[in-house]
């Protein structure tokens, strides 16, 4: 890695995940100073990244964002260079400013997309077609057909395209993935992930309109299940069911079609045995109780032929009780915000950080000619090609809810004669 050139990076989206700034102030979630900006500033300090830029929709937000970063990153960690170019320029409002921001980059630069779900596909495609390496947050796309298009575009332009499924880098999850391989044929998987009702206030502008809680939260564990079962089983049929009534009532008043809790039931078929079939149940909710002591409740269960695995990602055996706020369970294995003994940022081993660093390392090694994008598919990383079934299941779930029917996932020949995944 020592001889690789530094890479320039554009952050698309200036919100909670990128900066921790949510328009009214710092986020009240577990990401008060964000993840992407902080990680890239630290990777610049460590010599992997060079120039940075950021694009949102409303350029008028940048003075407040810069002040928030200066106080909470510059004022807390030593040696952080917080400089970046901003788009739209001059405080303008422009939802297509990402185009100019991408055009300003040299091919081989990195583009990291944390914007609302329906915008991932057009921004990613625009960047890939101009020769950029792209990291897209989950859900990569809402439609399977868009995901397939991004796979083809990334291949054509020979760029790295990863989906930011950071849970694959959680040490407990990646160890569990390896152990699952020794448990024989797959039989049953169930996952629960939820956030407290107050998130409906935070997500009000898009909840139920532009996306749903299954895309937002179940994307995480559907991807983990697809990763565990890669090359061993395939999903064939999805049936979805939803609970409603809380999000659409007082005081949240979300649009009438907003679901509270969505469950997808998925049939899986072994690719190595004629006899074995499995069932997976993925549930996500944004109407979980307040004051549960965690921001995201999240746990899953895997059963194979010869054993089972249980993981509780929300309770890590580490809790803190404060008189005013009660007991909270924290997860420093994701993002560790407390500084090092020298006063520098100290979270380089957190899987939120590692996930972005792996992408930056992959893009730099392709630029240096020491790796090809296909190498990362072979390594089982969350590349756009390796995550296609995650999108297939999420998209099938949405159709199942809307059309009240089972949706089938199949292989079919495309117009150019290549086999690809489709929904029926
Ligand atoms: N916040 C989290 O904890 C988290 C975790 C993992 C993934 N995600 C994903 O991140 C995405 C949203 O990011 P967030 O959580 O920071 O949300 P956010 O609402 O705080 O920020 C979204 C940002 O996107 C910008 N944006 C909207 N349209 C744009 C466009 N056309 N061009 C450029 N920027 C545009 C907005 O200006 C805003 O800055 C979602 O896809 C979500 O699933 C969020």
TrEMBL record:
This is GFO-IDH-MocA domain-containing protein. Pfam families: GFO_IDH_MocA. Coiled coil: none annotated. GO terms for cellular component: cytoplasm. GO terms for molecular function: nucleotide binding; oxidoreductase activity. Residues 109-165 form the Gfo/Idh/MocA-like oxidoreductase N-terminal domain. It comes from the Eukaryota. GO terms for biological process: NADPH regeneration.
